[in-house]
Amino acid sequence: MTENQISKIILDSAFEVYFKLGPGLLESIYERILAKELREKGLEIQTQVPVPVFWKGEEIGLGYRGDLLVNEKVLVELKSVEKILPIHPKQLKTYLKVLDLRLGLLINFNEIKLVNGIVRVVNGLKESS
């Protein structure tokens, strides 16, 4: 499956979760439920994926953790915040670079309309991939 095919399944599942639960829950709850939904759809899910930081070939330490890694191709960062800040997509882009991934989705479940809380972040991915 391509990154774009995987992202469609992720977004369809995120909308399903959002329409059933709505906004206002903790990020960790959305993470668990979305991971469960994606596994039930046959996708491979890793949660709280370490994002190590390297400098000149040496691992400096664990930088952050990515919320969901789907099929080892798409990184999903989940939020439940008032609004996405400019730093959030930038952080996701850095995670993609460090993990050598091409597509990330930033999903903020604390929106009146979920579509307003979705940001697609690419790292060298073409739309047809």
List its traits.
alpha+beta, 129 residues, globular, five-stranded mixed beta sheet
Structure explained in plain terms:
The protein is an alpha+beta fold. It has one domain. The chain has 3 helices and 5 strands, in the order ααβββαββ. It has helices at residues 3-21, 27-40, 87-99, and strands at residues 45-55, 58-70, 74-79, 103-108, 118-122. Strands 1-2-3-4-5 form a 5-stranded mixed β-sheet. A hairpin with a 3-residue loop joins strand 2 (58-70) and strand 3 (74-79). Helix 1 crosses helix 2 (27-40). It is globular and about 45 Å long. The model has no long low-confidence stretch (mean pLDDT 93). It comes from Algoriphagus ornithinivorans. This is GxxExxY protein. InterPro entries: GxxExxY, PDDEXK-like_dom_sf.
For the residues shown, what is the average pLDDT? 93
Tell me the fraction of residues in β-strands, as a range.
25-35%
User: How many distinct beta strands?
Assistant: 5
Count of alpha/pi helices: 3
Biggest sheet descriptor: 5 strands, mixed
Uncertain stretches of 5 or more adjacent residues: none
Pfam families: PDDEXK_3 (PF13366)
Organism: Algoriphagus ornithinivorans
Protein name: GxxExxY protein
Secondary-structure blueprint of this entry?
Blueprint: H1 3-21, H2 27-40, E1 45-55, E2 58-70, E3 74-79, H3 87-99, E4 103-108, E5 118-122
Parallel strand pairs: 3-4
Antiparallel strand pairs: 1-2, 2-3, 4-5
Helix pairs in contact: 1-2
Give a quick precis of the structure.
The protein has 129 residues and is an alpha+beta fold. The chain has helices at 3-21, 27-40, 87-99; strands spanning 45-55, 58-70, 74-79, 103-108, 118-122. This is GxxExxY protein.
